[in-house]
Amino acid sequence: MINMKRSIKLLLIVTILSASLKAQEHGPSFITIRGDIKTPVKIYDNQMLTMDRLTVQLTGRDGTARNYTGVSVSNLLKLAKLPQGKELRGENLSMYVMVKSADGYQLVFSLPEFDSSFHGRTIILADRLEGGLLPVKEGPFRLIVPNEKVGARSSFQVTEFIVRYGKD
Amino acid sequence: MRGVLIFVLFILISAGNQKNIPAPVPLTIAYPDNFGHKIYINADNPTTVEGVLLGRHLFYETALSANNQISCATCHQQARAFTDGKRFSTGVDGTLQDRNTMALVNLLWVNNLFWDGRATGLEVQAKTPLTHPHEMGQSLERSSQKLSNLKNYPEQFKQAFGTDSIDPAYILKALAQFQRTLVSGNSRYDQYLQGTYQPTLSELNGMNLFYANSNSTSGVRGAGCGRCHGGVKTYSELFHNTGLDVSPTDSGRERVTGQKIDRGRFRVVTLRNIALTAPYMHDGRFTTLEEVVQHYSEHVQETEFLSPFLDKLHLTRQETKDIVAFLHLLTDSSFITNPAFANPAQQK
Fold it and tell me: Is A66 helix (H, G, I), strand (E, B) or coil?
């Protein structure tokens, strides 16, 4: 029984490693967090595999629910020392995050939209679909915004999170 | 004490000189409201009447090229929506460019210039064609020297930027200001939107196909062009691999980002005045709009880097004709004849 568990664990490690190696064929993939923060942060695909992983469902246009796995955007933004939880008050509530994709597509979220203390849902940056790598057309990183009537904010090929303060 | 007096005198004289130069007059660029307001004006280079006029003179100035024979307008001709009709333009040294000359239309909404978006802002972009050895081939410093010796320029720079010395940065700023004014928003399509033009059946059908997505359940036919050529101005700042080649010889935006997912990705251009800007695509491979639509209909190459939003459209012959009819509707004759964009030397 122990041997079997060990074998499954080994198989899992090999699967993840081979997936990572496949990703490496395209060079290391990364996203950048920049903007009104002290130091821009680059997060690589390998680093994401070491962070707390979450799986959420997204229903496609064809009505099929699919399982996407990755890291909560809130945890990624934590690496850039962005305010979270109780810190999200006062002027921090005027912060927003522009999510940019490789094709130039741009979306805006207010910072609290990523925070679980404000929202019952968790938005993730996915790097896996049903356990495998994302299809090239969607990945290497796709934003998954669950429970939205329109899928336009679950954007493909995310490359940057740009943090700004709304100023007037 | 004498030193202090001289210093005070100097300050007074300087202040007096400043007063002799009237401040340039701010210019608000007019454009249709339905184009949206995601415009790009450099905060360090506000648009002024004098700056735009200077930029227009510089745009048509051959002294900015190493052989004194080429100006920006050589490759960017107003009658062709600021293109030159060639697959590849020729530089001062006789070398052909790597990519097709881009139209200068509605640049007010463009932040990342060139086919691969490598230059942020028109001020940055202008430096390349002016100085590249295969384009106009002259350093900005040399251009400054030459302009200083030409009649009217020192005075025009003074009026636009308040200085006698022609700084290279001001050449770029003036050119950027002029190019921002090249707004095209008076085509028959705009007139249709305002209720003053009745499109033909073919144009209307083309318009519907352009904006609609095909839906096999409802039977709606659509080409979904508007997804990328978005909105009324038929432009969103996007870059896509449109399936031109299985193995692109020009890697496009990948050269800028270093990311393989950007292989063969190029700017999605505005379709305003597109009927005037043949040949088409980054390498000018298609000579007609029919060929372009045919590409999207039947010849899109399925590669891993193909835009996720593209698939062969399988249009009928009539549908192709209708889409092309709609594209012709985007021609703005007032844009290509607007005297404010023409060579000022020929208007005197």
Answer: strand
Q: How many C-beta atoms surround the C-beta of residue B203 within 10 A?
A: 22
Residue B332 and residue B275 in contact, taking contact as beta carbons nearer than 8 Å: no
Residues of B with Cβ-Cβ distance to A159 under 8 angstroms:
257, 259
> Which of 244-303 (B) contact A at CB < 8 A?
257-262, 265
Q: Touching check for A113 and chain B: CB below 8 Å? A: no
DSSP string, A111-126: GGGG-TTT-SS--EEE
Answer whether B304 sits within 8 Å of A136, measured CB to CB: yes
Tens of pLDDT, residues B156-194: 999 999 987 899 999 999 999 999 999 999 999 999 999
Window from A35-39, A59-63, B60-64, B254-258 with minimum mean pLDDT: A59-63
- Evaluate whether ipTM surpasses 0.90: no
Give residue B216's pLDDT: 81
- Nearest one of A126, A138, A112, A156 to A51, comparing CA atoms: A126
Q: How many CA atoms lie within 13 A of B263 on its CB side?
A: 16
Chain segment A72-114, per-residue pLDDT in tens: 999 999 999 999 988 888 889 999 999 999 999 999 999 999 9
B97 in helix, strand or coil?
coil
CA distances, B83 to each of B143, B260, B266 (Å): 23, 30, 18
Q: Residue A69: enclosing H or E segment and its boundaries?
A: strand A65-72
| Residue B175 to residue B268: CA distance in whole angstroms | 23
Rounded CA-CA distance A33/A42 in Å is 6
